[in-house]
Design brief:
three-stranded antiparallel sheet; single chain; 1 helix; two-stranded parallel ribbon
């Protein structure tokens, strides 16, 4: 079995923008922890929180030349919570 962390990264630049704080709609995300079954079969955590508003996802891919690589995607939100934040800590405030 090939471990994903040893694969090269596909050379694709992510589109990065910074969230506006004045928007009417706020989009927040919480990274979920691996479940017991995923831990048991040694699944790799493909989500990485880069900062309070950016989540990076590593997507394993096979190229047309049958070489494996990891394609990195970056997503920007108004706020990103990690897997240790529980429902009581993750609150969306209504400013109206």
């Amino acid at each position: 079995m090939v471990r994903c962390k040893t694969l090269p990264t596909c050379k694709k630049q992510p589109n990065i923008f910074y969230p506006q704080q004045e928007d009417d709609i706020r989009v927040c995300v919480r990274k979920r922890p691996l479940n017991d079954n995923e831990i048991l079969i040694n699944e790799r955590d493909i989500a990485d929180i880069r900062n309070n508003y950016t989540l990076k996802i590593d997507k394993p891919r096979t190229r047309a030349n049958t070489r494996n690589c990891i394609e990195r995607h970056s997503f920007t939100f108004n706020e990103v919570f990690d897997e240790d934040d529980n429902g009581n800590e993750v609150k969306i405030e209504d400013n109206d």
